[in-house]
C-alpha cells in the first residue's frame, strides 16, 4: 500500500493558497490546488514536466544498466562485440579469459571475427554461431592448456575471400592436462596450404595425459595441400636430370613426403613414454574433401614418388621404427574411440593408427566418389595392437577396406567393402585389391581375427601378404577371387578357417 503524505506549505506570500501531495517512493510532485494567478500556473506545470522526465530517464538508465552489453560481463557471460580489428577483438577476448568470474564467452551469431593466436589456461566455454578467421597464419590459433574447456558451434575458416594460401599449421592444439576438453557442433573448412608446409591439422590432441576429451558433431571439409610449389619444381627437375642420366633410383631425388594434410591428429610433442596415456572420443563427425593436389586442382597420385598424403584422422607415435622389431608393438596405448562418423572423398585413408594401441572404430562409413585417385584403404594401421573395427563400410574407389601393414592384435567384424556404383552381375571390373590386406614386404601382421566380412568385386576378400595367427570366419566375396589369397611370406599353418571353409585356402 502506498502512503500519501499531505504537505501544507507556509501561509502564501506571492503564490497564494495552495496544497501539495507527494507520492512516497516515486519522486513525483503533484500539484492539487494552484493559485488562480495565471503567471504562476505555467511555472508549476513546467516543474511537473521536468520531474516526470527525470523519473522516466532514471528508469531507462536503470534498465540499461541491468542488461548485458557487448564486451561487458553479466552473470558470468561475456559477449565479444564484432566489427573491430583482429588486435582489438583478440585483446577483448584475452581480457575475458583473464577474468576468472567469466564462465562463458559468446561470439555473436552471424558475425565474422578475425583473431590473433590466444591461449586458454582456465575452464571456460567459447560459443556462438559465428565465423572465426585466423589473422596470423604462422602459429596455432588456439592453444588449450587447462581442463574443462569447451568450444561450441563456431565455424573456423582457413581463409576468407581476400586471403591467399599460407603455411598455417593448425587451428587448435590441446596440450597435456587439458582433461575433459570438449569440441562440439563446430565446422572447420576452406583451407589450402602451400607445399612448403610439412603438415597441417585442424585439431591436434596431445597423446599424453589428456583424459576424457570429446570431439562430437563437428564437420571438417575442403582441405588441400598444394604440392607443386617452388620446392616441388626443383625436386622434379633434379629427378628428371638424374633419370635422364641413367642413374639408379631417381625417385630418391624427390622429397619423401609432400606434407600431410588432415583434420584431427592425436600424437605427441617430445617424449611419449613414462606418462599417462590420453583417452578420448570422436563421434558423429563428417570429414569431406581432404587431399593433396597440384595447383591445377588435380590429384598427384600419378607423380613419381610418394606425393600424396591426406588422412582424416591420424593417431600415432611419430618415430622411425627399425626393421628389427617389425613384428613388435610399441608400448604406448591411447584409448581413442571413433564412432558413427562419415568420411567422403578422403585421399589416402579415413583413419590411420600407427605404433599405438587401443584404437576402436565402429559404425563408420567411407565414400570415395572422386575419379582422379583411389584411396589406399578405408582404415589402415601399422605396428598397432588392440585395434578393433566393427560394423563399418567402405564404398567407392578404394584399393582396400582395411590395411594392417604390421603388428597386432586386431579384431575386424562386420566390414562391408563395395564399389560406390553398383556393378552388374558377372562384371570383371575390380573395385580394389582386397577387403582386408595383412602385412607388407618383411613386415608381418600377427594375431588377427576377421568375422562377418562382405566384399564385392575385389581381387580377394582377405589378402595375406605376410601374416600369422589369423582367424577368418563368415566371409562373402561377390565377383572376385580367391576368397583368401596367400603371399609367399604368409604362415599358412597358422591361418584358421572353419572346417567347412578349409577348401577356400589355395
UniProtKB/TrEMBL annotation:
Name by which UniProt lists this protein: Right handed beta helix domain-containing protein
Source organism: Thalassoglobus polymorphus
